[in-house]
């Protein structure tokens, strides 16, 4: 028999339920695409969401707009048609959001512009947990898609989201509106419209953009000039023929070389989450070109406020994100004015020294095996990509032996 404990009629949520229901919302929205956009740093998102939803939950309970079910496996926050937002609510939310207030404000403004003018029952946030045998919809009420229903029950947003769901109250005949983070759920409402979210990502500049003066950032010009002078040419100390970086020249010639600058960040804690976003942007760029060109896409993230005299903080940043990049089939490397990393072919050569601290991203290639040998996890990810025909158990054994075996001789 299916578990029907989560499909019972909704009941008012109480202040005593706050701990359980706020935790539920924080867990549901942890991987919500808009929450990830507002709070790009995972650790900050984990810290902020419980405070954020705690404030909203208390306000919803006070206005009679918070609902749950008997099993406390679902929660819906709303603002009834005859209720008004407490004037101190926005200030409390902005304080909780902290340094990400600009992104939060952009989303809130976009929502406000699309809400109906006439009085309506506004559903703000909803979350459901799946239980064994249940078919309850896991709702997320946030942009970029918006749906509204008039009268409330006509769209059956809450009752038929997965053919069976909690019988949530829909008010007393007043129109209702809600915003959703996914188009499939929004299409279940009687109207659906897009809500574009303004981008606050630092721009990615092509070499052509910089050459044409579209960016006036001198640091980008410096890094581009160094890339052409150093990466695309040979070097007497390199220990092999060919350019220092075999991919840089073709990438520049095909206009697949991108540069970006992140001012004001000086440690791994400030940049780690942002690099995850650059990883996504890299994948978007690579997906937009023919597969034969995807291996030439390169993104250089310039970090001018990292210590120029000590490469330690940049090395720590690269180590902290490398596994996530390798698992996605990407390479991430650090370049620094004093980077101590030796060359593969000649130990006295320092190929990772650049005029400005930066992180470079490119696609993982078969020739990157030497860079995987310091970590069993990295090597396992490499083998999974380039030797998929080898059984996973054997790949794990190979990784353990290759990484931990002492060098011969």
Automatic annotation (TrEMBL):
**Polar residues bias (residue ranges):** 169-182
Region described as Disordered? 152-185
Any idea where the DUF6875 domain is?
A: 221-396
**What InterPro entries has UniProt attached to this entry?**
DUF6875 (IPR049240)
Query: Which Gene3D superfamilies does this chain map to?
Result: 3.40.630.30
Q: Cross-referenced Pfam families, in alphabetical order? A: DUF6875
Query: What is the protein's name according to its record?
Result: DUF6875 domain-containing protein
